[in-house]
Design brief:
globular; Leucine-rich Repeat Variant; mainly alpha
């Protein structure tokens, strides 16, 4: 429900459900982790204020830990949530970077699952779009060279996310465009 309504997303925050979800990310099975990451993403997507509430609940560290989970669907849900948090403002994107997400998103991009590759590239694009410094973080983690290799991939969804990520990095200045 929080996915479709700002008001319901706000009620998840005001009823203090976020800390329970965050706690469960580190304690529960893969099904709970995936569902919890989905709810965190659903809340964060609506506004910078709701995304900040997700950050304030301590979710970043738990979501980053989930990027190391064995289950690819947990990694995907976490990457998706981190991207939705980062897309709003440069401050939120910096918080995602400071939580250690970028190197793990680059590792997730190297996994064989297409949906995980798409979400990882999308999250990296959401981070890189704000400032040259954030884009440089993606470059420094080795993201651009790995992502560029997938330009010729047969999957159009992956190709779109690859182009978006490369464009978000390159738009800032000539040096980043030439990476």
């Amino acid at each position: 429900l929080a996915n479709h309504s700002d008001e319901l997303a706000e009620s998840v925050v005001t009823h203090e459900i976020l800390p329970q979800l965050v706690h469960g990310l580190g304690q529960q099975n893969r099904f709970f982790k995936k569902a919890a990451a989905f709810v965190l993403r659903a809340v964060a997507k609506h506004s910078p204020q709701l995304a900040q509430a997700v950050v304030d609940s301590g979710a970043l560290e738990s979501l980053v830990e989930c990027l190391e989970d064995f289950d690819p669907s947990v990694k995907e849900a976490s990457a998706w949530a981190l991207g939705y948090i980062a897309r709003h403002t440069k401050e939120l994107a910096l918080a995602v970077v400071d939580a250690g997400a970028v190197p793990l998103l680059v590792l997730c991009f190297q996994e064989p699952e297409l949906t995980l590759k798409r979400m990882s590239a999308s999250a990296l694009a959401d981070i890189a779009k704000h400032t040259p410094e954030l884009a440089q973080t993606v470059v420094d983690a080795g993201g651009v060279s790995l992502i560029a290799r997938e330009l010729g991939h047969a999957d159009s969804g992956l190709k779109r996310q690859v182009c978006s990520c490369l464009g978000q990095v390159a738009k800032h200045n000539v040096d980043l465009a030439e990476v």
